[in-house]
Write a structure and sequence with these properties.
Strand order of the largest sheet: 5-4-1-6-10-7-11
Number of strands: 11
Largest sheet: 7 strands, mixed
CATH topology: Spore Coat Polysaccharide Biosynthesis Protein SpsA, Chain A
Structural class: alpha/beta
Distance between the termini: 38 Å
Oligomer: single chain
CATH superfamily: Spore Coat Polysaccharide Biosynthesis Protein SpsA, Chain A
Shape: globular
Helix content: 25-40%
Length: 232
């Protein structure tokens, strides 16, 4: 059985230009994430999938294996990650029982030990479709609100208006960090959130979806906190 990590890293990012290669505490964000994959010591091969010549050059400068270029249909804003993963798996000519981990380039807060533990749990389970990182909502979404165009507020679920937050069922969400599955799953079951998948829990302080500048700022604050805790 072979274990491969694929890091999708597009060059385009409208809200944070060149996000994946932007410097994050002295090194490109992508390099932070690739180092995490290396330190986990669970992969036979780590491949960066990109449509960008700049990302490809960066990989060369940091001794990272780059799969470049992607086909045109997998290089625009609407290309699904599943399509990218399928393309790279077929390009690598992997066997159906090989394990492939999709690790997002923005996963700089992930600790290598957590990735290693999730991987080992996936291997030992034997029957799990995918293992992917989840974290609890920091506020119960059952008490969520939405605003109309005129600014008026409405509850999503009015029946929970008088329910205490601590009495509501805890709800989790995907962190957009990593997804682990056998090749046969990647090629036949693109829906990772299926009933045979398992969520590996991460603390909200260990994850940050990075789309806007304020997300980047939060990621920096969380990274400093994690680093300070590790130094202690």
């Amino acid at each position: 059985m072979k274990s491969v990590c694929i890091i999708p890293a597009r060059g385009g990012s409208k809200r944070i230009p060149k996000k994946n290669i932007k410097l994050f505490f002295g090194a490109p964000l992508l390099v932070h994430t690739a180092d995490i994959a290396k330190e986990a010591s669970i992969f036979d091969e780590i491949v960066v999938s990109t449509d960008s010549s700049e990302v490809n050059e960066l990989c060369g400068n940091h001794s990272l294996v780059s799969s470049y270029p992607r086909p045109a249909e997998l290089a625009d804003d609407f290309a699904p990650v599943y399509g990218v993963m399928k393309h790279e798996i077929q390009k690598l000519e992997l066997g159906e029982d090989d394990i492939v981990t999709c690790l997002y380039a923005t996963a700089a807060l992930l600790r290598p030990t957590k990735l290693m533990e999730a991987f080992k749990q996936h291997i030992s389970s034997g029957v799990v479709s995918y293992t992917f990182a989840v974290t609890p909502f920091t506020f119960p979404p059952q008490r969520g609100l939405y605003r109309n165009e005129d600014g008026k507020i409405h509850m999503l679920e009015e029946q929970y208006f008088t329910t205490r937050s601590q009495d509501l069922k805890q709800i989790w969400h995907d962190t957009g960090t990593f997804y682990i599955g056998k090749v046969r799953e990647w090629l036949s079951e693109p829906f990772t959130f299926n009933s045979n998948s398992v969520g590996y829990p991460l603390d909200p302080t260990e994850v940050q979806d990075i789309d806007e500048q304020h997300d980047w700022d939060l990621a920096e604050l969380k990274y400093m906190r994690l680093k300070n805790n590790n130094d202690d």
